[in-house]
Fold:
Amino acid sequence: MSTGEERAARMALGVLVEPGSRELGELVRARGPLEALDRVVHADRISSALAGAVHARVKAAGVEGSLEVGAQLAERMAEQAERHGARIITAADDEWPVVLDHLVRASRTGNVLRRDTDPPLCVWLRGPLRFAETLERSVSVVGARAITGYGGYVASEFGYGLAEEGWTVVSGAALGVDVTAHRGALASGGPTVAVMACGIDKQYPAANAAVIEQIGAEGLLVTEWPPGTEPHKTRFLTRNRVIAAATKGTVVVEAGSRSGARSTLAYARLLGRSAMAVPGPINSAMSVGCHMELRQENTVLVTRVDEIIEAIGSVGELALPIKGAGRPEDVLDPLQARVLDAVRPRRATTAEQIAAVAGVSGRDARRSLPLLVELGFVTATPDGYRLSSLPQATIGEVEER
Structure:
């Protein structure tokens, strides 16, 4: 079997069967794409459901009864790709990301929409980036379509900040969080990938047409469906498995309790990817899904780009701790801070009186007070020491000393 024949067979299977079919995937892995194609076309030892679905597609394509079904379909697909400025890749191509093959590990569940999680057989691409290389440092940012101002701010900041740090931002080009994250990445001049649930020729949703076109020109548009395919609800759920598998981790910015973005996070967990969620107001319906996910084991709470990179990056890519605003007294050591606490604000007291209140020796008080005066915390008077109205010391000034 030549690589060209295998490639053509995978392409044909990709249009004859809806993406994610576990039965077809197992057949391809066991018998190879050429035998798998022959068996599904001739309904040979496959389920009636798979046979019926393939027959409907063969008939619709007008190649029923042909001995060269695979070759004809592959040729048509190549022509369509050229017409739409796209290209088609399969596992037989160097550009194929092996991370997509990890979907074999996705476990079965009782829900048919979650059971069909097999790897793609072929994908359509449009854009200048190479698929596998672009995903080497990538993270998906997903969430609700009906985002709040808070969600829009977070998605934009994450998209821009991740791209600026050299990470590819992957999302689904949908309204809300998805397109906002894409826009943020594009604004930084960084790479972004949109995984679509429709044909490569479709600009869905229409409101995002300009962004989708820009991604196709500067980033990468990806889909498993051939040109002309309309977006259906189940296709969005199927598409989500690719978003999760393609990246090192998934961040959910905002999500309702039934948001499809949660399925992407579920796939990420199944595949051993980092699962991350952003907390929101406890009374926001658009953060309920995030809070539900944060209660799941191994979900990481993230609020900054640094924290995302810490979860998915290499060893040593750690987020710096968040620190409060610096205060002048932060420059003091513990003894000096105790002495300062014992100085009265209005009435002057002696060093011995201050020592008694602070619980330190008179010697320690007498040694600390001149420095507190020098730093502007304390004022010396003939009667003793009292607090200054406006301390002048800064961390920088003390470090210079």
